[in-house]
Specification:
Strand order of the largest sheet: 2-3-1-4-5
InterPro entries: P-loop_NTPase, Shikimate/glucono_kinase, Shikimate_kinase/TSH1, Shikimate_kinase_CS
Largest sheet: 5 strands, parallel
CATH topology: Rossmann fold
Structural class: alpha/beta
Number of strands: 5
Strand content: 5-15%
Helix content: 40-55%
Shape: globular
Number of helices: 8
CATH superfamily: P-loop containing nucleotide triphosphate hydrolases
Catalytic activity: shikimate + ATP = 3-phosphoshikimate + ADP + H(+)
CATH architecture: 3-Layer(aba) Sandwich
Bound molecules: adenosine-5'-triphosphate, (3R,4S,5R)-3,4,5-trihydroxycyclohex-1-ENE-1-carboxylic acid, magnesium ion
Subunit structure: Monomer.
EC number: 2.7.1.71
Radius of gyration: 15 Å
Binding site for substrate: 34, 58, 80, 135
């Protein structure tokens, strides 16, 4: 069993939103590793970061991705930083992976100033810029397809993925 598609990309790329649209369109279940980690630990991601640190969160994330890739045959959305771990990148070697690309301006608009994204605390715009610069090559390295999301609605993004992966 393997996911029909895995969505990767930075915070605000729309992974969770587009995963839901694809699941509805294809009639398949949707999984999101951020939600899986919160369900298995009973803790919010922001609390895990504050209380246990990012490394501990990444360990949980590797396990969550491994379980989802092994068990899930629908749409899988990953947390924005999951691909930072080589173990996670290796798990994606044999599945279609769509990198949802988003530029700085649209990403900032989409994530707002909520407290649910611990890596963005402080200056959201400069934090996102650093993450985009560091991670874009990593997302590209795991992607089998790249879909631009700037200036497009989630429905338009989902429709392009359905055309790429009929
Ligand atoms: N193409 C889009 N155009 C405009 N707004 C969008 C688009 N995609 C998602 N959004 C909005 O941006 C916000 C973030 O989207 P979403 O939670 O799906 O991102 P994510 O990639 O899953 O982020 P994270 O890595 O933090 O989980 C949501 O409010 C969502 O409605
Ligand atoms: O980009 C990241 O590193 C993160 C993205 C979110 O999906 C969560 O997994 C968490 O807030 C960390
Ligand atoms: Mg998400």
């Amino acid at each position: 069993m393997a996911p029909r598609v895995v969505l990767v990309g930075p915070m605000g790329a729309g992974k969770t939103t587009v995963a839901g649209l694809l699941g509805d369109a294809w009639g398949v279940p949707v999984r999101d590793t951020d939600a899986d980690i919160e369900a298995t630990t009973g803790r919010e991601i922001s609390d895990i970061f504050v209380e246990s640190g990012e490394d501990a969160f990444r360990e949980l994330e590797v396990a969550a991705v491994a379980a989802a890739v092994a068990e899930h045959d629908g749409v899988l959305a990953l947390g924005g930083g999951a691909v930072l771990r080589a173990e996670t990148r290796d798990l994606l070697a044999d599945v279609p992976v769509v990198f949802l690309r988003v530029g700085l301006s649209d990403a900032v608009k989409r994530v707002g100033i909520g407290v649910g994204r611990p890596l963005l605390l402080g200056n959201v715009r400069s934090r996102i810029k650093v993450l985009l610069d560091e991670r874009t090559p990593v997302y590209e390295s795991v992607a089998t397809h790249v879909v631009d999301t700037d200036g497009r609605t989630p429905d338009e993004v989902a429709d392009e993925i359905r055309e790429l992966l009929p």
